[in-house]
Amino acid sequence: MSDARESVRQEDAPLRVVVWNENVHESRGDEIVNRNYPEGIHGAVAAGLRETLGDDVDVSTAVLTDPEHGLSEQRLAETDVLLWWGHVAHDQVSDDVVDRVVAHVQAGMGLIVLHSGHYSKVFTRLLGTTCSLRWRNDGERELVWTIAPTHPIAEGVPSPIVIPEQEMYGEYFDIPTPDELVFLSTFTGGEVFRSGVTYRRGLGKLFYFSPGDQEYPVYHHPDIKRVIANGVRWARPTGPRRQLTADQHPLGWFEGGASGV
Amino acid sequence: MSDARESVRQEDAPLRVVVWNENVHESRGDEIVNRNYPEGIHGAVAAGLRETLGDDVDVSTAVLTDPEHGLSEQRLAETDVLLWWGHVAHDQVSDDVVDRVVAHVQAGMGLIVLHSGHYSKVFTRLLGTTCSLRWRNDGERELVWTIAPTHPIAEGVPSPIVIPEQEMYGEYFDIPTPDELVFLSTFTGGEVFRSGVTYRRGLGKLFYFSPGDQEYPVYHHPDIKRVIANGVRWARPTGPRRQLTADQHPLGWFEGGASGV
Amino acid sequence: MSDARESVRQEDAPLRVVVWNENVHESRGDEIVNRNYPEGIHGAVAAGLRETLGDDVDVSTAVLTDPEHGLSEQRLAETDVLLWWGHVAHDQVSDDVVDRVVAHVQAGMGLIVLHSGHYSKVFTRLLGTTCSLRWRNDGERELVWTIAPTHPIAEGVPSPIVIPEQEMYGEYFDIPTPDELVFLSTFTGGEVFRSGVTYRRGLGKLFYFSPGDQEYPVYHHPDIKRVIANGVRWARPTGPRRQLTADQHPLGWFEGGASGV
Amino acid sequence: MSDARESVRQEDAPLRVVVWNENVHESRGDEIVNRNYPEGIHGAVAAGLRETLGDDVDVSTAVLTDPEHGLSEQRLAETDVLLWWGHVAHDQVSDDVVDRVVAHVQAGMGLIVLHSGHYSKVFTRLLGTTCSLRWRNDGERELVWTIAPTHPIAEGVPSPIVIPEQEMYGEYFDIPTPDELVFLSTFTGGEVFRSGVTYRRGLGKLFYFSPGDQEYPVYHHPDIKRVIANGVRWARPTGPRRQLTADQHPLGWFEGGASGV
Question: Residue A145, SS3?
């Protein structure tokens, strides 16, 4: 990592947020997706963040076809929280960029992974599991129940959030035991899903949130916008970006004073 | 994965255990290592398992210089629990073999990672963090305290286990929050380390245990042998090896009957 | 606690299991309950355990109207795992007996709390929360999904278990974050519930399992019988019963040898 | 609980903090305690909070000999975060007051339990374990290591915090698995202790922090003051105080709209 890592925002500066989207459904002209998301899924998510968080955020977007997928070392060094949406093009994301994103998360960048991003290289690399699940696309009602009522990510939304039509994601969801289980979803068919879960990886905070699909206008739902905005605030870095390394301790160090983490 | 995965042991058959060691210190003739471990670290760990578990285990060893590092698809398919020791040659382990080991763990194979194996590709891939730590090699006394008194891995050992001379490993240890914190170690210098931790990854169980070093005869310590044997028993698979995948659920399936995980 | 605590079973002796039931619905002649459970709920649960575990268990029952509710110090000292069913008479359970049960759990006795036992004094005392929940008795279908596929309590049951008619229990369930989340249930109405959760309290293991109600024949369901039997095996003590106390450490103790937990 | 519960602070109003101390060592004239804490332990803790948090807090104190121990229903209803210090007089705290404090924590009041408060009725009731531990009073050096580097409670303190002289608290500490393990302490004698742990109980947040003793001037240590102040901010309520109860769900409710937790 370059010294660019040191360019950390001031406490009162807006959070620098990047919404990444593979943007394949949109650019190849899938009708229903274009109808739901005329500005792209990234455009809708970014608009929701700007609407909810206002001047507290500085939101930009990046897509697969940008140079380096829009995620250069410089760009990541200046990003506080990255959001990730992908579906059909996970294997087109370069391993170099994945390594870079993973390193930035471990060094303190926040990460929000949305919906089908469960199968992205970034997410499976950070979690260490297959992240497989069950699914069925039949326009079912999803109910998103709050299981952690005092968690900041659940602030200001009803329990349940009612999403009239959705793709079903169901257990068994092959993830590590979450640090925090914030939301559980049920579907008309009777399935259940751990739909809002958090993890820490190094100095970075991760939030996975499953509601959201290209075929349904879920990212326009006011409660969903609120949850994603809450997630961005929750996942913000708590200090300067810093790569953790194995350090040799001096002998007798504790006589001479304390050191950092 | 091949069908070889289906070759699962009978309930009453011995556990098939493979102790993997990079075997570099030993084969290049590091004097102190050869003195401590004339049969290699893998030889000492394997002997400890045979001594402690007797007919309940069928233990073999594998090293870096074996073809495919001794970890072919066939060999892994017939392994219930794999132990991993590495130090100076982590980057010589082929990515193909790492992918294979990771897939087998996720599909149900048990994994015990020892000491400096914290920095192995296999461990960092399954955990998603850097696994960095602090260290000092000064022959300090390590005390290994039991924090989970009813955990099967802590069965039959005193709290603390006293290791007269050891390399120090200290916090901050960059790992995800463990599923279970079994042991905490302290050192003469005052440092502390989460020295025994467990994780689940898919259908596989992982146990990391830090005591053990090439320069100290730790693997001959009776309590350490016991912990490693307990770990092997704890990490054994609970069912046939099986790769988890994303499955489509049929409509109305719950009318017609139940399905597997 | 008396010395009776020391009467611990031999490794190969049957597990000594007591099924406790307030037995109020049954003894006051609630028709539907008597029809579902002619031998009482305790009788049905005990029969399920004997059928599933055979000679591995020695099962007896106890009810509210027994002297000391059937839970004398002597009886508890000779109990490996206690099961608890209560509903309308929680406040009739004497505080002395509650203190005694809590102390035995903390000292190593296993405890399985069933269904409306969530509101029992024993459970709320061990958990430290209100254990409140939402409910609706409308004969809905309950689906019990396995979230921890390698957990021994989930062994041998399909995911989901289908219970045709049940009382609904729904979130928010006011419990501490479980040590392990084994099952999640959904209901026809769309609610979700953490229906199978485990905790450790001192040297004792707890399993709460919500399926089961006096108005539905749930305890005759083969999968439910299996889960409860799995729970009993899982919750068995790992050593002699022992009351944990605050102990003064001698100076320089670690020179002279190791001590117990 | 009375309607007084509804008197919740405005978002920008100071946090209302009460420091409770049994105040027995001080009032009976224990010399070393009076020397270390001329204003009482509660006075020192309160002064540290005022110094660190300034206008963000409104700090008052209460002691055992106050009417209702200074913890009337009205007082608790107007308290955002309660700190608890007790040692020799745990059993003199009335059960009615304990019930009241527990109910307020479960309904959203924050609670910080300090040092020997581990054995208080309030803490053991909320945790459900004996909270026993090992101890030795020999003026040892305590090192407080940060294990959760991004946790707000660890903000702004070195790792380790060095306390030159302290009473030793050691494992096994009989507590439930913490929601978050923030600090681990080591002592000259080689013991280890989970010295900073958090829990949620209902809508309330708990932080236990072990450094601090009547015989050593620990509460004047700048890093300890900072940790306690961080704890107070972390434990503040996230909404109006509210008693959780078991609620019946209406049939078909999800058609008509959403409800609260």
Answer: strand
Smallest Cβ–Cβ distance between D171 and the set B147, B171, B194 belongs to B147
Which of C172, C176, C246 lies at the smallest CB-CB distance from D176? C176
Q: Which of B142, B145, B197 has the highest number of chain D CBs within 10 A, making it the mutation to test binding with D?
A: B145
pLDDT at C258 over 80: no
| Size of the A and C interface in Cβ pairs below 8 Å | 58
Note every long-range contact of A252-255, with CB atoms under 8 Å and residues 24 or more positions apart, other chains counting.
A252/B189, A253/B189, A254/B189, A254/B190, A254/D141, A254/D143, A254/D160, A254/D162
Rounded Cα distance, D219 and D198, in Å: 20
Contacts of D255 (CB under 8 A, 6+ apart): none
Judge: A162–D254 Cβ closer than 8 Å, yes or no. Answer: yes
**Residue carrying structure tokens 């929050």:** B177
Give me the phi and psi of C231, to 5 degrees please.
-60, -40
Is residue D49 scored above 90 in pLDDT? yes
Query: Tokens standing for B34?
Result: 């050869």
What are the helix (H) ranges across chain C? 24-27, 31-36, 40-53, 73-77, 95-106, 121-127, 222-235, 253-256
CA-CA distance, C4 to C77, in Å (whole number)? Answer: 6
Facing residue for A258 by CB, picked from D155, D162, D239: D162
Comparing CA positions, the residue from C79, C84, C90 lying closest to residue C209 is: C84
pTM: 0.95
Smallest Cβ–Cβ distance between D146 and the set B160, B172, B186 belongs to B172
Residue of B nearest to A135 (CA): B248
The tokens for A76 are 């990541």
Measured CA to CA, the distance from residue C93 to residue C258 in angstroms comes to 42
Write phi, then psi, for A31 (nearest 5 degrees): -55, -50
Contact C192 A184 (CB under 8 A): yes
- Partner chains of B (3+ C-beta pairs under 8 Å): A, C, D
pLDDT of residue B4: 40
Task: Report the C-alpha gap between C202 and A81 in whole angstroms.
Answer: 40
Residue B258: both structure tokens together: 């139940």
Instruction: Give the C-alpha separation, D95 to D98, whole Å.
Output: 5
Q: Do the beta carbons of residue C85 and residue C118 sit within 8 Å?
A: no
Task: Determine contact, residues D46/D76, Cβ cutoff 8 Å.
Answer: no
- Least confident among B1-5, D134-138, D217-221: B1-5
pLDDT value, residue A12 = 78
Q: Rounded to 5 degrees, what are φ and ψ at C151?
A: -75, 135
Which residues, at least 6 apart from D43, have a Cβ–Cβ distance to it below 8 Å? D37, D61
What pLDDT is stored for residue B253 in this prediction?
54
Distance from CA of A54 to the nearest CA of B (A): 33
Do the chains contact at D201 and C128, CB–CB below 8 Å? Answer: yes
Per-residue pLDDT tens digits for A196-247: 999 999 999 999 999 998 999 999 999 999 999 999 999 999 999 999 988 7
Eight-state DSSP code of residue B159: B
- B162, two tokens: 């006293």
* DSSP state for residue D159 in the 8-state scheme: B
pLDDT, one tens digit per residue, over B169-194 is 999 999 999 999 999 999 999 999 99
Distance CA C150, CA B203 (A): 6
Distances in Å between the Cα of B70 and the Cα atoms of B62, B64, B102, D255 are 5, 7, 15, 60
- The answer to whether B254 contacts chain C (CB < 8 Å) is yes
Q: Where are the beta strands (DSSP E) in C106-203?
A: 110-114, 134-146, 161-170, 180-187, 192-201
Cross-strand bridge partners of residue C85: C21
Cβ of A203 within 8 Å of Cβ of D150? The answer is: yes
Chain B residues near residue D147 by CB distance under 8 angstroms: 171-172, 194
Measured between CA atoms, the residue of chain C closest to residue D102 is C128
- Cα B92 from chain centre: 19
